[in-house]
Amino acid sequence: MFKLFRYLKAYRLQVMLAIILVFLQTLSELYLPTLMSDIVDKGVVNGDISYIWKIGAFMLLVAVGGMLCSVAASFFTAKSATGFGRTIRSKVFSHVESLSQQEFDKIGTASLITRTTNDIFQVQQVLTIMLRMMVMAPLMCIGGMIMALSRDAQLSWVFVVSIPILILVILFVQSRAIPLFRKMQKKLDALNRVMRENLTGIRVIRAFSRIAFEKKRFEQANLDVTNTAIRVNKIMAVMMPAMMLILNFSMISIIWFGGIRIDHGDMQVGDLMAFIQYATQIMFSFVMMSMMFILIPRASVSATRINEVLKIEANILDPESPETPEQTIRGTIEFQNVSFYYENAEKPALANISFKAGPGEVTAIIGGTGSGKSTLLNLIPRFFDVSSGRILIDGIDVRAMSQVELRKKIGFVPQKAVLFTGTIADNIRYGNEHADHEEIQHAAEVAQAASFISEMAEGYQSTISQGGTNISGGQKQRLSIARALLRKAEFYLLDDSFSALDFKTDAALRNALKTEIRDACLLIVAQRVSTVMDADRIIVLDEGEIAGIGTHHELLNTCQVYKEIVSSQLAEEEIV
Ligand SMILES: Nc1ncnc2c1ncn2[C@@H]1O[C@H](COP(=O)(O)OP(=O)(O)OP(=O)(O)O)[C@@H](O)[C@H]1O
Fold this sequence. Notes:
By secondary structure, this protein is of the alpha/beta class. 63% of the residues lie in helices and 10% in strands. The protein has 2 domains: 7-311, Up-down Bundle (ABC transporter transmembrane region fold), CATH 1.20.1560.10; 326-409 and 529-576, P-loop containing nucleotide triphosphate hydrolases (Rossmann fold, 3-Layer(aba) Sandwich), CATH 3.40.50. The strands form 3 sheets. The protein has a 6-stranded mixed β-sheet, sandwiched between helices. The radius of gyration is 35 Å and the shape is elongated. The two termini are 68 Å apart. Bound molecules: adenosine-5'-triphosphate. Adenosine-5'-triphosphate binds next to helix 9.
């Protein structure tokens, strides 16, 4: 957990102020019983009213001062702890943003969400408590002991018995509770996972009438969290009464033996009253320390989980001195013997892929499901890095360019259209934040989206709901194409982006694209032969390897895999 405290640096001043204020508050609390004892022994016993008024007023002053320190300390601890939480959340968020898909998958989305929210909140909460107790508990314990000893050394043997018992109780509770805290965070991860899957897959769940099953799955995860929380709380619930019992027994012993000592004239009443208060403070300081001993390991479970995320090193990095392609070469891409393995995969997803494409050319990639089409496209913007071979963009290895520069050249349309909450115009503008309304409209027209947008009540200002659930799959695809077009990129990578379009729209879109992006290099992944037939070059993938490259006609004569795909989709008379 202490590793995370480096993020507290920015709040140094607030932390220092909080510590000083808690220190002053504790001193005031330690001083009050002495003043009270003086009032009793010197004022009440001697009947000195003016002394009682004087010390009483002073006590009030000390108490008010302590209270003000406490309020101000709360303010500064809250300020630094919430700021600390905010800083870590941003750090984790921006770190996760820099990770590649493979690193992202190591932890999983659900766990990443728990770590960024709940775990950080746990650490933040403990910091709030720690900033107060870290100073108050030891100071109160040591100060209280000194003060108690100064009042009556002989009565202090009560502590020799009660404190070791207290420590044993704390150790017992700690040994039981900490493993459960660890379990608790894991169970929360599981609950989040079920929740996420249910929310994103709600339509599938309904379509397959799996609501009862999913309910049961959620109930199970929910019950798991509840049961663990109950077990933790049961243990924690034992702690307080056990401590109070020890405290009360100590008080009885102090009053009992103190009474005997007063009876023998070895101690004054005021001293006994002060002693009782110091004993209470000492015991409470142990309660505070025990809370810290429980909360710190609990937070350190969360801190470890946060550090695990921060520790993952992004393996897709910018080179130290990035190269920029010459302005004269634009829109050329070359795969040189590229192979790629997913982590822990035995077989390569792509093997020995070589091809070249230039500006103004349309390269289509076709193949069965799982043949590596999406993987091939994903290697270009460096969502993954090649395992061997090279990908050259305008003559430069993609790994030698800065990621921002590389991605600026690319208009990417993912297989699963992703839209963000906001208006249609906002979503298209995502491709180029400086685009004006005319450009947005033009991109939508080319992407064959303009007609359905104009039919919507508020046109370009219509709101897209979270995840784009209020428009159809084909409409989503067209909007994501419009978004990519707005980039005016050198390369357009369209991953199965026509799959949800009807044949007429598909053809119209391809025609419009041809004229719109005349100088760009277009790579289209498609399942339909009709989509790829007109391409300058068709790459046929089969189990990660190139089964054939050529035009439609060339491949019909040379590539068996292509012929099979074609004959499965087109009628005899269409195959020309
Ligand atoms: N993140 C991943 N981790 C491990 N293996 C993966 C991952 N993504 C894809 N694969 C595997 O790599 C191979 C190629 O996948 P890819 O998604 O590139 O195929 P595809 O041709 O685009 O398929 P589809 O047409 O169904 O989209 C498949 O065998 C797939 O199981």
